[in-house]
Design brief:
Layout lengths: L1 H6 L8 H26 L5 H27 L1 H23 L5 H19 L3 H17 L10 H24 L6 H26 L3 E3 L3 E5 H22 L8 H28 L2
Antiparallel strand pairs: 1-2
Helix pairs in contact: 2-3, 2-8, 3-4, 3-8, 4-5, 4-7, 5-6, 5-7, 6-7, 8-9, 8-10, 9-10
């Protein structure tokens, strides 16, 4: 049974919500491409906007299979893909911040990410919960024997932040795969966060209005953020009804609250990464 859960791709479409999301993603890509062609032919969009729309659509055409296929393939593949993503993210983060020069500190960040993946794969919740404080503590002390107090706060701060982002946060996404019916839940989170950004872009471009945080993310508007909040909440409340049937979360107010949380924190996560990007130039 464990082998089936970890590697059992034959269960990929057991849940109706998984089927809906997979079919919906393919349909949305085709509809987006068709809409760009029609709007371009009608002269309704400018060449710069047309180029931006094609770039976004092409990006999603690459991202969607990379996100969906491991989730469909099995919990083991989901955890492995999440871990690979975490390591790739840390590699880029260490490169742009210069943390790669601190080899011992970087090694402990990577070890923390790998142990988090092991705990998720082994469904060892006690160890999984313990890794975050253990890793933070080890990152804080691992470079002390080098006797280089200069830059200590910077390297430890950068490393702890990296582990919390790529080890602990992504690790929790991986740990969700331990539920037998993890596919619809993880796919719903990925879909909702992805469409949250699309909703904000489309509503913001349509309605315009004041910028949300012009120095952090110049293209985001207040109307886009509000539109994303409403539309993402509706999407989550609708789809999660079929996921949480027979559980306390089936109640509408719980599903609405979940949608609000995903939309708000999805946008804050986006803005956090924009802050990192702007800070690093």
């Amino acid at each position: 049974m464990t082998a089936e859960r970890l590697w059992g791709w034959q269960h990929a479409f057991d849940h109706a919500v998984t089927q809906w999301i997979a079919l919906g993603c393919v349909s949305l890509l085709l509809l987006a491409a068709a809409a760009i062609v029609i709007l371009s032919a009608a002269g309704a969009i400018s060449p710069p906007l047309r180029r931006e729309l094609w770039l976004r659509t092409a990006s999603w055409a690459v991202i969607i299979p990379l996100l969906i296929v491991p989730v469909l393939a099995g919990a083991g593949w989901t955890i492995a893909a999440t871990t690979a993503l975490a390591l790739l993210c840390y590699n880029e983060y260490a490169r742009v911040t210069g943390l790669f020069r601190e080899r011992i500190v970087s090694a402990f960040v990577v070890l923390g990410i790998l142990f988090q993946a092991f705990a998720a794969l082994d469904h060892w919740y006690g160890f999984f919960v313990a890794i975050t404080p253990l890793a933070v503590g080890l990152i804080a002390i691992c470079s002390i024997p080098l006797d280089r107090p200069g830059g200590y706060i910077q390297r430890v701060g950068l490393a702890v932040f990296a582990f919390l982002l790529f080890g602990s946060a992504l690790g929790h996404l991986a740990y969700m795969a331990n539920d037998w019916h993890y596919r619809p839940l993880i796919l719903l989170i990925l879909l909702a966060v992805g469409l949250n950004d699309v909703f904000a872009f489309c509503v913001g471009k349509s309605l315009g209005g004041p910028k949300l945080l012009p120095h952090t993310s110049p293209n985001k508007t207040v109307s886009g953020a509000a539109g994303a909040l409403v539309l993402t909440t509706m999407l989550v409340a609708l789809l999660s009804g079929a996921i949480f049937v027979g559980t306390p979360l089936e109640a509408l107010h719980h599903r609405v609250a979940l949608g609000v949380l995903i939309s708000v924190f999805g946008q804050l996560g986006d803005l956090m990464l924009s802050s990192i990007k702007r800070d690093l130039g």
